[in-house]
Amino acid sequence: MTLASSHRVGVLFVLLAGILWSTSGILYRLLQDATPWHVLFYRSLALLGALLIWFVWRYRGALPAKLIDAGVPALVGGLCLGTAFAGYILALEYTTVANAMFLLASAPFFAALAGRFLLGERIKPYIWVGMLVTAVGIAIMAGDELSLGKGLGEGFALIAALSFAGLTVSLRARPQTDKLITIFFATMVAAIFGFTGLIVDELPFSLKTIDILNCLTMGWFQIGLGFVLFTAGAKHLQAVELTLLSLTEVIAGPIIVWIGIGEIPSTASLTGGALILTAIILMALMAAKTDRHAVAI
Fold first, then answer.
1. Measured torsion, CA atoms of residues 256, 134, 17, 39, in degrees rounded to the nearest 10
2. Distance between CA atoms of 127 and 113, rounded to whole angstroms?
3. I need a surface site. Which of 68, 162, 194, 254 has the fewest CB within 10 A?
């Protein structure tokens, strides 16, 4: 495969991954009786099953050693990602898909802050500007919800964004670790969250067939296949391309629920979301420009 064709395949895979991830909102809204705890539990079981099949095929008898070798960074990353899974699903329960996705998109800026304090990484001036713009966007969105006596969903979305930032830092700590192992640990954490929630709230484990199918679809395709495509495509793309192409999820998600079930974002949501997306795009473009300048020198 030539370099140009590999690049095209990478673009296609990452775009498809974003589209798959963007269906989380509409799939959640189409549920009939399932609670967030049901979704976390059954979606995680579906993804766990798929990952185990893949690991057994790929590593065979070496699987236990691979899981152990992944070490603390994979466990910490799994805890962070599992918490992010839970925070995002709970956010969908209490706020609009647009609010949840826009706030989740702010994760790169939280990751920059975490990298500064935990890894000693320097934050470039343009990232500080991006964080300021993002903070304004978040304030607009959250302030609108708080004025309506709400805001719980935004809180869960911010927890998810912070947790994704923790995942990013853990991956930097040991970049050679198989990312799917981290996802495996994360899925176990999310399943535990779901199981605990069902027990504490004394909810039945049984669900309607349509809800079970939706949860399985989320596990196998919306998250599972999405991560596989993203991982495969990421090998052929630059960081700036990954950042910009991944925004497909944030842009398409609100549009899908808008067209599909008429969930219309508020003016504050669109305004704040536009600021966050603008900050991310500018950050990615500036990072690419800085990298090219460094190479030229």
1. -70
2. 10
3. 68
